[in-house]
Fold this sequence. Notes:
Order of helices and strands: HHHHHHHHHHHHHHHHHHHH
Largest sheet: none
Radius of gyration: 21 Å
Number of strands: 0
Distance between the termini: 24 Å
Number of domains: 1
CATH topology: Growth Hormone, Chain: A
Strand content: under 5%
Structural class: mainly alpha
Shape: globular
Number of helices: 20
Amino acid sequence: MTTPAEVRRTTLAASIGNTVETYDYAVYGFLATVLAKVFFPAASTAAGLLSSFAVFGSAFLARPAGALVFGPIADRLGRRPALVASLLLMAGASTLIGLLPSTGTIGIAAPVLLVLLRFTQGLAAGGEFTTAIIYVAEFAPPDRRGALASRVQVGSLAGFLLGAVVVLSLNAALTPAQLLGWGWRVPFLLALPIGAIGLYLRSRFGETPEFLAARHRPSTVDRAVDRQWSAVLLLVGVSVLHIVGIYMVYTYVQSYLIQLRLSALTATSVIAFALVAGIFLVLAGGRVSDRTGRPKALLVSSLVVLVVSYPLFAVLATAPPWWLVVGCTLLLSAGPAFYSGIAPITYVQLVPVRRRGSVVGISYNVTVGILGGSAVFICQALIELTGDRRAPAYLLVAAAAASALAAFALTRRAARPEPAPATRPLSAESSP
């Protein structure tokens, strides 16, 4: 029997790896305008920023490959080996980015090496987030799985917040020339000590009780789940708003605010404030899902995002006073944050124990590979193509609509009578 203290410690151990992952992603996003000058100095401002966002997206293209590697490891060898290996790979790649020479020093080799290291980060991320959620969910009591799994997402937002604080501190302490010359390296080098802390925590814990128990059960249910493509489609549909919403509001919006003539210091401060509020909203989403059920909570929150996104971007596009910028950004991030507290446990409970690492990992990371990195690029491209600063809202509205349909399908699925135990593909606690 797992004790509450063990649950707390394993939750922390799982979450800190996601902190490292999203810290690295966030730092790159927050420094996009600086990195564009470091690695694409000959390009125009717009072209350099688009190139920087394209490199940002290259890591997402590697995530499905990472899931193909780490998912089977999690299912065959255990959740813990997959979590340790992915953390080592992520921290190592991030440190090497911090040591990378600029284009002015080694020419075209610099952006090529940057893409390769970002690709390596993507491989690590492909095994990190979903395995961490599974790890926590399989330790958690059934009536608290939403609340505890949401803490893994809190670890992700904490990574964004940590990245924002570090970049904010650099902007405050350094001149633009110093930041361009060497200051941008500091956040990436900090990934090494953070990763070392996470590795120490993860090395102290063993396997989840559910994984150990599933090793000794017959695997006939695995063949049944292979035919359940509906569960995979639902997982993908639920993940759309989770992915697009988080990366848009906590990565792209900072660059968007800078383009509205806010200083980098002010824009990053606004995102940091939104992240603090987002952490509480993620926790609230997980707790609400334990009480009301995942489908209903997903449906309501996705509909809220659908309704409010365009009006909020319309206000931001007018470059309003700073207090209105803060209010709109906070409201814009609230819906995706609350939703992201519910979505992760939904993924886990759609798939039985023996196949969770592979099915959840591959399904989620294929969606991330398509939407995660492209979201920030598409947002900027929409503005460049249309000249309309409200255009990014269209992507967020479309993501909310897709996930609302998936959530509605989940409500219908939950309302149907449960199949008999002999043929039911999911465990009793696995109903979303």
